[in-house]
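User: I'm curious whether this sequence folds into something compact or stays loose and floppy. Could you predict its structure so I can see for myself?
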Amino acid sequence: MQTIELPLAEYERMQEELSLLKDAELLQKVNRLIDLLYQDKYGLYMGDFTEDLTEAAVNEAWEDKESSWDHV
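Assistant: Here's the prediction. I'll summarize afterward.
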């Protein structure tokens, strides 16, 4: 088994970070805060409506490549 040595302060900091990242309620609040800040800054609301972005990304990727359907 391989082991590593860390200073105690570094280990405690890592444990705290891990605990925060596992806190689902906190992550939901942070996501909501990001949505609100984005909306406030740009006057837009994205929410979970990303279907149009996916379609745009696919269309952009397909525009550059030639397809066998181009000659039908």
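Summary: Helices lie at 8-21, 24-42, 51-64. Residues 24-42 form the longest helix (19 residues).
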